[in-house]
Amino acid sequence: MTTHTHPQAAAAGSAPAAHEASTAPAASGAISAARAEGLPVVQAQGGLSAAWTERYSSALMNTFGTPKRVFVRGEGAQLWDADGRRYLDLFAGIAVNALGHAHPLIVNAVTAQLTTLGHVGNFFGTAPQIALAERLLALAALPGSGPAAEQGPAGGPDLGSGRVYFANSGTEANEAAFKLTRLTGRTKVIATEGGFHGRTMGALALTGKPAIREAFEPLPAGVEFVPFGDAAALENAVDDQTAAVFLEPIQGERGVLPAPPGYLKAAREITARHGALLVLDEVQTGIGRTGDWFAFQHAGIRPDVVTLAKGLGGGLPIGACLAFGRAAELFTPGSHGSTFAGNPVACAAGLAVLHAIERDGLIERAGEVGDLLRQGIEELDHPAVAGVRGEGLLLAIVLRRAAAAEVADAALDAGFIVNAVNPESIRLAPPLILTTDQAREFLGALPKLLDHALDEAGRS
Ligand SMILES: *Cc1c(COP(=O)(O)O)cnc(C)c1O
């Protein structure tokens, strides 16, 4: 892409860049209508980042630290900040914006739904939530495309028997799954070290990161942790008292650590043998990101429960807990609920995401562009890089030194959004619409960014 605005150029007061940020052509009608009513419509005027950052820090709780940028507009895989600088978004709001920013299908679906019916509450049903539940169940029942999948799904229930519980986020989808496991009559739950399932008390109880748990103990009881990827440890831990095993196919927050080959299949076999539920947290891996609709399809297994969120709503808050077989019957009226869950606007966005993924072949694209990125990074043969982990468009560049933060900062300064998921790993989770040209643009800039991870000797 030759039009990429270098941030320094924009910072030096490049009028076109600032202007570009302030007016999204498709939005201008809605913006003037809102203005006419006196609603605050915040747009970039150029040079405003510092002011907004200061206001952020005085008004918002300090849960995320000081924001490195304040963004005002997005389009496709691009974002503009309050100073009018353009960025290529390789992180998609933590693997959320599957269709990028301001995708016409989502804008139209959400607008159509909101101008028709915005919310009724869960004493009533709406067409989008019913249609989305049906679509998700049908997609979960598809065979996968991976090598393991070709052998046919291993164990587990008939996915035709599924039911969906909608939530508003990943942590809520996991709360639902956790509560559901209590209704099996068993209370012992196995989760994995280094796993991440969310920040609410139940999901936190399943999360294998002591640093983010300890301040909030006591957490719901009954959870035991085993090392991730170790089938023998799982075999030892699961018994006839075990209600469920919670696993991520790829531990995203740990640094994009995939389960070793055969692990999910072993987990399926072990849980089935003991009558325990296999719950897969696909909040990060689901909805096309790894090059299949669900990562479990790649592994050729059938879980009892799958949780979803991030990529499902294309930026609107939505989560889902899919359960199959007997797990689908555990909740009964009164067992669980939420005021907003299954909101028709969020569900309409979800339907738009699924439609676009199918229409535009984005599952295949995730596999192809993911391979291009992986190979491109490996071929750089950069001395700071130890390797690449992950699947499809959920990747980590693993560094030889703990310099991920420096590389991510350098990337941001150069106009690329990536994530230092841990001190040694740079996570890439771009929109599924990322083009090969955009992937190459990033690969072209990468060597210089990675130089920030060289030690003093390597840099000189
Ligand atoms: C992000 C994430 C969650 C939590 O989702 P929220 O929407 O932030 O609550 C849970 N599990 C996994 C695997 C995640 O990546």
UniProtKB/TrEMBL annotation:
<keyword id="KW-0808">Transferase</keyword>
<keyword id="KW-0055">Arginine biosynthesis</keyword>
<keyword id="KW-0663">Pyridoxal phosphate</keyword>
<keyword id="KW-0963">Cytoplasm</keyword>
<comment type="pathway">
    <text>Amino-acid biosynthesis; L-arginine biosynthesis; N(2)-acetyl-L-ornithine from L-glutamate: step 4/4.</text>
</comment>
<feature type="binding site">
    <location>
        <begin position="170"/>
        <end position="171"/>
    </location>
    <ligand>
        <name>pyridoxal 5'-phosphate</name>
    </ligand>
</feature>
<keyword id="KW-0032">Aminotransferase</keyword>
<dbReference type="GO" id="GO:0005737">
    <property type="term" value="C:cytoplasm"/>
</dbReference>
<keyword id="KW-0028">Amino-acid biosynthesis</keyword>
<comment type="subunit">
    <text>Homodimer.</text>
</comment>
<dbReference type="InterPro" id="IPR050103">
    <property type="entry name" value="Class-III_PLP-dep_AT"/>
</dbReference>
<comment type="similarity">
    <text>Belongs to the class-III pyridoxal-phosphate-dependent aminotransferase family. ArgD subfamily.</text>
</comment>
<dbReference type="InterPro" id="IPR004636">
    <property type="entry name" value="AcOrn/SuccOrn_fam"/>
</dbReference>
<dbReference type="InterPro" id="IPR015422">
    <property type="entry name" value="PyrdxlP-dep_Trfase_small"/>
</dbReference>
<dbReference type="InterPro" id="IPR049704">
    <property type="entry name" value="Aminotrans_3_PPA_site"/>
</dbReference>
<dbReference type="GO" id="GO:0003992">
    <property type="term" value="F:N2-acetyl-L-ornithine:2-oxoglutarate 5-aminotransferase activity"/>
</dbReference>
<dbReference type="GO" id="GO:0030170">
    <property type="term" value="F:pyridoxal phosphate binding"/>
</dbReference>
<feature type="binding site">
    <location>
        <position position="196"/>
    </location>
    <ligand>
        <name>pyridoxal 5'-phosphate</name>
    </ligand>
</feature>
<dbReference type="InterPro" id="IPR015424">
    <property type="entry name" value="PyrdxlP-dep_Trfase"/>
</dbReference>
<dbReference type="InterPro" id="IPR005814">
    <property type="entry name" value="Aminotrans_3"/>
</dbReference>
<feature type="binding site">
    <location>
        <position position="338"/>
    </location>
    <ligand>
        <name>N(2)-acetyl-L-ornithine</name>
    </ligand>
</feature>
<feature type="binding site">
    <location>
        <position position="339"/>
    </location>
    <ligand>
        <name>pyridoxal 5'-phosphate</name>
    </ligand>
</feature>
<feature type="compositionally biased region" description="Low complexity">
    <location>
        <begin position="9"/>
        <end position="23"/>
    </location>
</feature>
<dbReference type="Pfam" id="PF00202">
    <property type="entry name" value="Aminotran_3"/>
</dbReference>
<protein>
    <recommendedName>
        <fullName>Acetylornithine aminotransferase</fullName>
        <ecNumber>2.6.1.11</ecNumber>
    </recommendedName>
</protein>
<feature type="binding site">
    <location>
        <begin position="281"/>
        <end position="284"/>
    </location>
    <ligand>
        <name>pyridoxal 5'-phosphate</name>
    </ligand>
</feature>
<feature type="binding site">
    <location>
        <position position="199"/>
    </location>
    <ligand>
        <name>N(2)-acetyl-L-ornithine</name>
    </ligand>
</feature>
<dbReference type="GO" id="GO:0042802">
    <property type="term" value="F:identical protein binding"/>
</dbReference>
<dbReference type="InterPro" id="IPR015421">
    <property type="entry name" value="PyrdxlP-dep_Trfase_major"/>
</dbReference>
<feature type="region of interest" description="Disordered">
    <location>
        <begin position="1"/>
        <end position="23"/>
    </location>
</feature>
<feature type="modified residue" description="N6-(pyridoxal phosphate)lysine">
    <location>
        <position position="310"/>
    </location>
</feature>
<dbReference type="GO" id="GO:0006526">
    <property type="term" value="P:L-arginine biosynthetic process"/>
</dbReference>
